[in-house]
What we know:
10% strand; Integrase_DNA-bd_sf; elongated; DNA polymerase, domain 1; disordered C terminus; DNA integration; 18 helices; alpha+beta; 45% helix; hpI Integrase, Chain A; DNA-binding; 3 domains; three-stranded antiparallel beta sheet; DNA_brk_join_enz; Double Stranded RNA Binding Domain; 7 strands
Amino acid sequence: MTRAINKLSAQAVKAADAGKYSDGGGLWVFKNEDGGGKWVLRVHVHGRRREMGLGGYPAVSLKEARLEAEKWRSVVRQGQDPIKLREKQARDSARNLHLLSDVALDAFESRKAELKGDGKAGRWFSPLELHILPKLGKVPVSDIDQRDIRDVLAPIWHDKAETARKAMNRLSICLRHAAALGLEVDLQATEKAKALLGKQRHQTQNVPALHWQDVPAFYQSLNEGTVTELALRLLILTAQRSAPVRFLHLDQIEGDVWTVPASRMKGRIGTTTDFRVPLSTEAQAVIEQAKAFARDGFLFAGVRRGVISDATMSKYMNRRGMKERPHGFRSSFRDWAAEATNAPHEVAETCMGHVVGGKVERAYRRTDFLEQRRVLMERWSGLCCGTPSQIVRFANAQHQ
């Protein structure tokens, strides 16, 4: 015989005095003296009676209590204990808050301020996104061990060694971040995984670069006056990386000095100081020529919006059948400074934006060698333009 259900009405529940009232089907409302109460579902499963709370009244209405009761009655009909199932779901939900994908995103957000451009290019996160999270993203971070990491990175460990190294590094940061959150993780998992994977066979190759003696011919061939060629010319003349050149804003230039914001400088760990670049006469002429293409203050504007992409200059060189890449001109400059000048090491390195010396040494040495660099870059410009005087001599080079 089917038990009657839905015996109560919303008005009857509201008007009821303190006591217990059945809606049928095991659903009860326990009213208090103050008019509040709670909903309780009574069921029989595995030969015993179980009572589970379905929420307080009036926060949970009669209609909502009936829907919730039917959901758990269905669980009973399947032979499961609804209370144990609800507890398991709560535990799983709590664990899901600590999936590797969640921890990785949280770690990324907490480090954005430390990353160039707040990590907007996605380079910090992409090794995780491409090689770790597709297989381990839904795994609770506390469950990840060295075997999981080995299995994920094994396919690229030797063939894409640098990518695999970055992915391993990012994962290690995520594990440390999880530990800081108070989660139980194996902080040695990545080191153990490296032991399982073995020493990488792949050798990192340097970016192909033109010999410094071949730079003048290439520089002088950049004579079409396009945005890409002008950007390449300035990159060569200043020995800077692609990003500072591409994002050069006119308000960064004052006279013959270009001040690159610290956030645009890579490889200057240990300093948050903006970097001054002395502009040779030729570099200033290139900037003047490029101003005709400026948009929103950016000297090397893209076709539709923003600035030219990271690949624009590389593709240009590739179309000319060159294996060398824009970044290689930094090596060209550095080799020239070493082979054709007696410029002090710290002057040549500072020209490239490198931080020279230890923390204590830098604390006492406040100079950025601007005047010495001005002389060196003017001579480098002369070499690129094919003018004489390719040898640079510094007086008392040992002490500058």
